[in-house]
Structure formats: structure tokens, C-alpha cells
Write a structure and sequence with these properties.
Largest sheet: 4 strands, antiparallel
Distance between the termini: 14 Å
CATH class of the largest domain: Alpha Beta
Radius of gyration: 21 Å
Number of strands: 6
CATH superfamily of the largest domain: Lrp/AsnC effector binding domain/regulation of amino acid metabolism (RAM) domain
Order of helices and strands: HHHEHEEHEEE
Shape: elongated
Strand content: 15-25%
CATH architecture of the largest domain: 2-Layer Sandwich
Helix content: 25-40%
């Protein structure tokens, strides 16, 4: 079970995964050793799945983003399709969805030629892919990996909400 301090630690490492444990301890009122112990516990539990560096897509020449809706004609084709999406480096996200399409992909490529090749030659040509629809991203207002751990009111942190336990703390 996680407590308020665990949530504060998770909130802080989401913002800065390189935060020193002594600084984190100061923020949550624990020693660096206690923070280290809690972080290792959260990693063992799988709550912290890993740490990443956020890269600038424009500076790295991968600034064309798109969402691709993929309609798969029969469920027998889905596993092979999903397995391939895991391997394609251009695919940043692959979501199996309900609705008019089977999957929603978020992709980043260098230019329109790379997007064309990805969509027409590598995705549309797969067995079972009936149709795709590509939506180009013209600009991004918000993009985050951050999970909200606290209920929010008008952008201010509020008390943690516990669902299904009959109380709010």
C-alpha cells in the first residue's frame, strides 16, 4: 500500500527523475536513506517502471508527428499486427481501441516521405489491415508522460482522492 509520502515521491520523480535523494528527502521530511528505500520498494512493486530522458524531436530531425487510425479486418490478425507495432521504432504509442478503428498509433518521423513509406509500405501492406486514416499534427499544446496523483482544482494541488475505500484524505 502507498501512503502520502510515496505519492509525493512519485510526483517529484515524474518532474525530475534526476532529483537527488537528499533533496527529495528534504521535500517529504525523510532522510535520503529512507527515500532510497521507498524508491526501491516502488520499483520492485512496478509502480516505477523505468526512467527516461525526454528528447527534442525537432533538434533530432523527427518533428513530423501523426496519429494513424488502423482498421484491422478480423481479430485473427491483431496479435501479429500488435507484435510488429512494438518493433517499429517510428511508433511511439500503440493503443488497441474501441470504436470505428481497431488501433490508434502515435508516430514520429523525419518528413513526409518517411511518413508515406511507413503508412503505405509498412502498415497498409500488412495482412488484415483493411484501412488507415492519418491525422497530421500541426502543433502540440500539451504532451506529457505525467500522471496526476492528486485531485486538482483550478491547477492547484489538492488532497489525494481515494476511490473505492469510502474516504478522502
Amino acid at each position: 500500500m502507498m501512503d502520502k509520502i510515496d505519492l509525493q515521491i512519485l510526483d517529484a520523480v515524474q518532474t525530475d527523475a534526476r532529483i537527488h535523494q537528499a533533496e527529495l528527502g528534504r521535500r517529504v521530511g525523510l532522510s535520503a536513506a529512507s527515500v532510497n528505500e521507498r524508491i526501491h520498494k516502488l520499483e520492485r512493486l512496478g509502480v516505477i517502471r523505468g526512467y527516461v530522458a525526454l528528447l527534442d524531436d525537432l533538434k533530432l530531425g523527427r518533428d513530423m508527428a501523426a496519429f494513424i487510425e488502423v482498421d484491422i479486418e478480423h481479430p485473427r490478425y491483431e496479435k501479429a499486427f500488435l507484435d510488429l507495432m512494438i518493433k517499429l521504432t517510428e511508433v511511439q504509442e500503440c493503443h488497441h481501441v474501441a470504436g470505428d478503428f481497431s488501433c490508434l498509433l502515435k508516430v514520429r518521423v523525419s518528413d513526409r516521405r518517411a511518413l508515406r513509406e511507413l503508412v503505405l509500405d509498412r502498415i497498409n501492406s500488412l495482412p488484415g489491415v483493411r484501412q488507415t486514416r492519418t491525422i497530421l499534427v500541426l502543433g502540440t499544446t500539451k504532451e506529457t508522460t505525467r500522471l496526476s496523483l492528486f485531485a486538482s482544482t483550478n491547477g492547484k494541488k489538492a488532497k489525494r482522492v481515494i476511490h473505492g475505500r469510502g474516504s478522502n484524505k
